[in-house]
Write the structure tokens for this entry.
Amino acid sequence: MNGSHGAVGRLYGVGVGPGDPELITVRALRIVRSVAVVAYPSARHGRSNARAVVAGELGPRHIELPLIYPVTTELEQPKAGYEAAMHAFYDASAAAIAAHLDAGRDVAILCEGDPFFYGSYMYLHDRLAQRYPTEVVAGVCSVMAGAARLGVPLVRRDTEMTILPGTLEESELATRLQTGAAYAIMKLGRNFAKVRSAVERAGVGDRALYIERATMAAERIVPLRDVDPQSVPYFSLVIVPGSQVLPDRDALRISQIAARPGRVCVVGLGPGASDWVAPEAARELIEATDLIGYAPYLARVPERAGQRRHPSDNRVEIERARHAFELAANGARVCVVSSGDPGIFAMATAVMEALEAGPPAWRTLDVHVVPGISAMQAAAARAGAPLGHDFCAISLSDRLKPWEIVAKRLAAAASADFALALYNPTSSQRRWQLDEARAILLRHRTPQTPVVLARDIGGPSEALRIIELRELDARDVDMRTVVLVGTSTTRTFDAPGGRRFVYTPRTYGTAATVGSATASDRA
Ligand code: SAH
């Protein structure tokens, strides 16, 4: 579609739909594939939802033209300065696009949803459509995609639908929300609290649904009444389906969304650094109504207005787990937090025990476990790769199992030449266990076996020491430490700057012996 010599290029305003790459039209896709230049609005950090929809289609033959917004956050209240900055931004963007069109290159401007529905494309259209051959390609709009995802029809027969921007005054919104049958409210973000209050004033709060990132991976659908205003992104809208004689089926669907069962989510916070918290865990923590956990772990979770916190002492795991189910049985969304991974010497197991032993009704609740980076992984990463081959994890605590079992497992793991991660190596009450463990290990390993003492990894008092097994001493190890013990092949080496690495090679013996073993296997 590139213009021939002397001819200007064609401009396309292309709606790419709400986010799911399957919801772009065939025509839009064909145009994106064929044009020379693909332009799209982009935040300063480079993220562009419109580009993400067609990312798989873009290749080296395309010239990409990100149109970087002059502001990082969306400003809903028009200020003179904001208006002027946006005006200059559209002028500059239009000039950059015009340069390509003048050179005979076709340009597609990508727009989320539909280009003529609250899209920034319109401002470029105003500036360019008179001057260049232009075509606008309709896209699936977020309101329609949202309704489809809800599974609730919007309007029937002679009822009408009203689309409102959340930027209107609250009283204006409340008035207009009494005039129609179905409504969609766009541009939430910072307008959210006002929008919700208008919805309640208009008396339509009981059937108002909130949809975030409809059709994208992180889609979220909840009754409007359950939304935490601080969690509302720009990519969200409210849908109020038509009420007039709402068929039972639709009323049921809304009540199903509204009467979601309570939720117990066990979340691993990782070993201490906020960078090591999974995005899924962060999302669950934001959406929780209640947080339960050992007080120092809860202290790592940022405070959120409206969220209840139930800090507890250490060692009351079962009480904590039961408390979570009691709250969830009353409709709460509860996050039970653990450090590291919740399934490794942590709360997920206590939650399972409480669930199995608890009232049958608890099993109808929504129960979910979000994994985390465990202390041994973080410690191993800091040291190099000491757990790079077969390894096992053993807790030295004899609070929940007799010491004989611990001793037996240590001996078995050591004799089988596993690398070991020793959790709960000591505590203020348990002093002798680690020295006893060293004695057991020394029956199967040389005194020079590399050992990593990893204390508070990812936390403020992080410290890593690489020693030999013979030097392992309970006085150097506290409860915030995980101890990694190497195998018979684990090695260390030095790097400049006093850095030392520890790793366990991938093979036993030399590469040559491995090669010949493979050959004889084939023979
Ligand atoms: N669920 C946690 C383990 C809880 S048991 C996890 O997966 O990491 C508690 C033990 O974990 C502590 O005694 C210590 O051995 C280890 N540990 C937890 N966080 C740690 C950290 N940041 N640095 C070193 N060891 C840690």
